[in-house]
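[job 4471] stage=fold_predict status=RUNNING
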Amino acid sequence: MRWKADHPGSKPGRSYAELVGGPLDGLLLDITGRRPEEIDDGVSLATELGQFGPGGRALYDPRPGDPARWDWGGDSP
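[job 4471] inference complete, writing structure tokens
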């Protein structure tokens, strides 16, 4: 899950997942040091850019077969 060092915002020695789709499309999520059980079910990330505006969250899940990319699953309040 190492991201290419030339990707803007990435730092050597860190592990990232690229967020695909939704309000955070193209951003990197730093998953360095997280155990698989912490991320297998995906994440809920605070954002003002989603359907619910300030206080809303964007939901992303690891893509089956490509854990370096996480797909948007929708927004929640």
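[job 4471] summary: The first strand starts at residue 16 and ends at 20.
[job 4471] exit 0
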